[in-house]
Inverse folding.
């Protein structure tokens, strides 16, 4: 995935996650977990509907030279998603237009 120049480039973290992350790549910047293909690709749902940019700033943007997430990616999921490690229920969390309980 083409990324901004690490020395002089910039991105808007609330809207440009896919500037660095691409579905299904062999690189460490892939987003393969959960149901990203359905949510992001098929439905066009923004990453920030489910993920907190505040939490990402603490656990992801601190050491981008590493090949893994600096903190558990699950800790960036917003409380309204109602994710418990194996399932989520965003409708009961108040997210309009979202599905009920699903297990992955």
């Amino acid at each position: 995935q083409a990324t901004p120049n690490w020395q002089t480039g910039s991105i808007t973290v609330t809207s440009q996650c896919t500037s660095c992350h691409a579905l299904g790549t062999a690189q460490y910047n892939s987003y393969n977990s959960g149901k990203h293909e359905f949510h992001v690709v098929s439905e066009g749902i923004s990453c920030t509907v489910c993920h907190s940019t505040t939490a990402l700033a603490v656990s992801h943007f601190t050491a981008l030279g590493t090949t893994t997430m600096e903190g558990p990616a699950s800790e960036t999921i917003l409380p309204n998603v109602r994710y418990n490690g194996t399932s989520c229920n965003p409708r009961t969390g108040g997210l309009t237009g979202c599905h009920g309980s699903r297990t992955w």
Summary: The chain has a mean pLDDT of 78. The beta strands are 87-88, 102-103. Helices lie at 36-42, 53-59. The longest helix spans residues 36-42.
